[in-house]
Design goal:
The chain contains seven helices and 14 strands. With 209 residues, it is of the alpha/beta class. The protein has a single domain (3-207), classed as Rossmann fold (3-Layer(aba) Sandwich), CATH 3.40.50. The strands form three sheets. It has an eight-stranded mixed sheet, sandwiched between helices. The protein has a four-stranded mixed sheet with strand order 6-5-7-11, with helices on one face.
């Protein structure tokens, strides 16, 4: 049975992810143990809260090094919500904080077209698939642009180019990056484990990679 490691570094709702992968007939493990991470088939970086706090906790127990090593092995890696934002070079949340630097770009506060924008963005938004060739060969391959997924965030990723963007969404009239994929690295701004059948289909695609 495939082993899915969900990084436990004191950030994120790990139980819901654990239960999701349990339903998908994998062996999920919640851990920060480097050997267990190395021996896993898939690695998930969850996260909620402040970027700087999450990066500090990650580096304190050298999980950044474990992530780099895992990715270098060519195994599938996924960042979810704040975990996706941490894939980028830096965040502007509460000052500038360096991220993992796996994808070029940065993280900014969700921009507004007017002063009445509601933050955080909480709720269901449509996926808008982009970069058709990449999307059709990604974890979104059988997901439609009309499908809804669940978001909760006040900051968003701003990739340097659209090369790795596989989906966007629109909130309060503003287009936001919803998902990226670069080789064996995947990022989801939304929560697949809270996104019903569509979310489970995406997680199923991930473990089929």
């Amino acid at each position: 049975m495939k082993k899915v490691c969900v990084l436990d570094y004191g950030i994120g709702n790990l139980k819901s992810l654990y239960n999701a992968f349990k339903i998908l007939d994998t062996t999920p493990v919640l851990t920060s143990d480097h050997k267990k991470i190395k021996d896993s088939d898939f690695l998930i970086l969850p996260g909620v809260g402040a970027f700087a706090n999450a990066m500090e906790k990650l580096k304190k127990i050298h999980l950044d090094e474990a992530i780099y090593h895992f990715i270098d092995q060519g195994k599938p890696f996924m960042g979810i919500c704040l975990g996706m934002q941490m894939l980028f070079e830096y965040s502007e949340e509460f000052g500038v904080t360096d991220g993992l630097g796996l994808i070029k770009g940065n993280v900014i506060k969700i921009p507004s077209k007017n002063k009445k924008i509601r933050l955080p963005n909480i709720g269901w938004n449509k996926i808008i698939k982009s970069n058709t060739e990449l999307s059709n060969n990604s974890i979104l391959r059988n997901i439609r642009s009309e499908d809804y997924v669940y978001f909760i965030h006040s900051y968003c990723c701003k990739p340097q180019t659209n090369e790795n963007v596989i989906a966007n969404t629109v909130y309060e009239g503003v287009k936001l990056c919803a998902s990226v994929q670069k080789n064996n690295i995947v990022g989801l701004q939304f929560h697949p484990e809270k996104s019903g059948k569509v979310g489970f289909e995406i997680l199923k695609n991930f473990i089929k990679n």
